């Protein structure tokens, strides 16, 4: 609502005007009254009204003198507020008064008795103009505020910056200033077994900056200068003594209240980092830098989600991942398909990083090193990593916008997915290897080959090869080789006049007697009898 001051030496005229006009419907509220021009000057200073409705003829100081003083004062005195609009109400239809009023920029000149429709029309037009002016002024002041904040943060403040800041914000020397960074750690995806589902927050594409602005609005209704600033995916805001006093300057209490507001809006995984409190605008840059440093202690304070640099600055932080032995254990368990042990080991790995106070950058590095090692194993097995459901999720995870609990959940699923994929690929590879071995036997059966020689050729254990061959083809290796040789021998007996010992040598038998013995077992007749029978039938 815009504010109105009523000025008239007749109290009944003022009271009547209060009742006559539908002030709220016109966008106004009556902020106060004055009995004459002198009192009105004082009230204008106190109330800073947007509009003054004044009578012309009053004792001591009349309406025109009041307007003149106000206009000249605002021309001479630097003020943060614009001078009010004036509407003159008079029973004197005097053109000279109207001319003088126009020279002073009076908005309207209304004769008594007042026509409420006319005055309400004037007020509505004034409300629209005031809205435009106030919006433009608010935008200008916000832009100025952001410009000054940037200069302080990035060390670009000039000689006049401090004066501009004091004039704009009304802060005093020695007032507390605290810079806060907000980080949204709400998971964008929910991972379960081999499935992935998009979370509602991610699907709606909510703007985190607007959410922060809403929370600030809930906590600091009608308080000025709480403009959020984007720092990558984080949102920053500067709190002044005005914002801290309602909470007895207790930053923990301020942050807890903020988290309660976030939770009310359905965002219960927001971290708040608070830099070192400063008492000089020129140190706002230091307050911001220490808020950034507070992020290093994120996982130490993950349970509360609140990190004050002043509380944590002396805590040791691990910046480099060094537990390569544990990483190798995880890889071994994955390759060996020891699922339960793998899940436990991932949990222990994360507990170790939390206990050692790993900084977010170190956690991200450790996870990505492990992922890289897993992918290397899968690649060597010729597995298609893009077919792993959780691959993209864990690859995109970053510690600076997630929690250790979320990372543990994602990595566990990824490791189990990778273990399954590796097992599937090994099965596929073994089936492919068996096919190659079968083709090799079919091409070389006439040579002096054996299970041991083939196993050596394909870099396999002969016992394992024999077991795999029987499992894949349902026949022992020696029986398969003998069957190939016998079929070829029968073919040569039918189609050629080669001697039996020549055929035996051709199909891979080192002894014709051994060939004859095996042939007779298989066909219940000797090689010669088999040939003669074929000839007789022909």
Automatic annotation (TrEMBL):
<keyword id="KW-0238">DNA-binding</keyword>
<dbReference type="InterPro" id="IPR009057">
    <property type="entry name" value="Homeodomain-like_sf"/>
</dbReference>
<keyword id="KW-0597">Phosphoprotein</keyword>
<dbReference type="Pfam" id="PF12833">
    <property type="entry name" value="HTH_18"/>
</dbReference>
<feature type="domain" description="HTH araC/xylS-type">
    <location>
        <begin position="435"/>
        <end position="533"/>
    </location>
</feature>
<protein>
    <submittedName>
        <fullName>Response regulator</fullName>
    </submittedName>
</protein>
<dbReference type="InterPro" id="IPR011006">
    <property type="entry name" value="CheY-like_superfamily"/>
</dbReference>
<dbReference type="Pfam" id="PF00072">
    <property type="entry name" value="Response_reg"/>
</dbReference>
<dbReference type="InterPro" id="IPR018062">
    <property type="entry name" value="HTH_AraC-typ_CS"/>
</dbReference>
<keyword id="KW-0902">Two-component regulatory system</keyword>
<dbReference type="InterPro" id="IPR051552">
    <property type="entry name" value="HptR"/>
</dbReference>
<keyword id="KW-0963">Cytoplasm</keyword>
<keyword id="KW-0805">Transcription regulation</keyword>
<feature type="domain" description="Response regulatory">
    <location>
        <begin position="3"/>
        <end position="127"/>
    </location>
</feature>
<dbReference type="InterPro" id="IPR018060">
    <property type="entry name" value="HTH_AraC"/>
</dbReference>
<feature type="modified residue" description="4-aspartylphosphate">
    <location>
        <position position="55"/>
    </location>
</feature>
<keyword id="KW-0804">Transcription</keyword>
<dbReference type="InterPro" id="IPR001789">
    <property type="entry name" value="Sig_transdc_resp-reg_receiver"/>
</dbReference>
């Amino acid at each position: 609502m815009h504010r109105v001051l009523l000025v008239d030496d007749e109290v009944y005229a003022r009271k009547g005007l209060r009742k006559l006009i539908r002030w709220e419907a016109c966008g106004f509220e009556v902020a106060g009254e004055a009995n004459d021009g002198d009192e009105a000057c004082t009230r204008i200073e106190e109330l800073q009204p947007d509009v003054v409705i004044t009578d012309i003829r009053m004792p001591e100081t009349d309406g025109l003198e009041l307007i003149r003083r106000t206009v000249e004062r605002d021309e001479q005195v630097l003020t943060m507020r614009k001078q009010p609009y004036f509407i003159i109400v008079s029973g004197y239809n005097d053109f000279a008064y109207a001319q003088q009023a126009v020279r002073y920029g009076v908005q309207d000149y209304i004769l008594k008795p007042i026509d409420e429709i006319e005055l309400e029309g004037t007020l509505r037009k004034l409300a629209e103009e005031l809205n435009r002016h106030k919006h433009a002024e608010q935008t200008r002041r916000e832009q100025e505020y952001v410009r000054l904040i940037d200069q302080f943060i990035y060390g670009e403040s000039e000689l006049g910056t401090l004066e501009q800041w004091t004039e704009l914000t009304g802060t005093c020397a020695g007032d507390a200033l605290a810079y806060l960074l907000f980080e949204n750690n709400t998971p964008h995806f929910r991972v379960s077994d081999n499935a992935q589902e998009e979370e509602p927050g991610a699907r709606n594409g909510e703007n985190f900056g607007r959410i922060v602005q809403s929370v600030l609005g809930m906590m600091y209704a009608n308080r000025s200068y709480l403009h959020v600033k984007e720092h990558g995916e984080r949102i920053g805001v500067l709190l002044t003594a005005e914002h801290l006093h309602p909470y007895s300057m207790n930053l923990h209490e301020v942050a807890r209240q903020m988290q309660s507001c976030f939770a009310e809006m359905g965002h219960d995984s927001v971290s708040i980092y608070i830099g070192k409190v400063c008492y000089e605008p020129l140190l706002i840059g230091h307050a911001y830098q220490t808020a950034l440093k507070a992020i290093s202690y994120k996982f130490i304070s993950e349970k509360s989600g609140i990190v004050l640099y002043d509380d944590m600055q002396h805590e040791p932080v691990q910046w480099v991942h060094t537990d390569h032995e544990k990483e190798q254990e995880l890889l071994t368990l994955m390759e060996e398909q020891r699922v339960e042990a793998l899940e436990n080991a991932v949990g222990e790995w994360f507990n170790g990083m939390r206990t050692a106070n790993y900084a977010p950058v170190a956690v991200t590095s450790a996870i990505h090193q492990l992922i890289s090692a897993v992918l290397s194993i899968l690649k060597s097995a010729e597995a298609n990593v893009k077919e792993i459901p959780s691959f993209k999720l864990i690859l995109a995870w970053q510690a600076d916008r997630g929690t250790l609990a979320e990372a543990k959940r994602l990595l566990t699923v990824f490791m189990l997915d990778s273990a399954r994929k590796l097992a599937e690929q090994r099965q596929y590879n073994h089936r492919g290897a068996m096919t190659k071995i079968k083709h090799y036997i079919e091409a070389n059966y006439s040579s002096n080959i054996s299970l041991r020689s083939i196993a050596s050729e394909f870099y396999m254990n002969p016992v394992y090869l024999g077991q795999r061959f029987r499992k894949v083809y349902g026949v022992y290796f020696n029986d398969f080789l003998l069957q190939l040789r016998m079929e070829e021998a029968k073919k040569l007996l039918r189609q050629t006049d080669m001697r039996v010992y020549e055929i035996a040598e051709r199909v891979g038998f080192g002894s014709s007697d051994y060939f004859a013995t095996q042939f007779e077992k298989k066909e219940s007749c000797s090689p010669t009898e088999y040939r003669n029978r074929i000839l007789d039938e022909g």
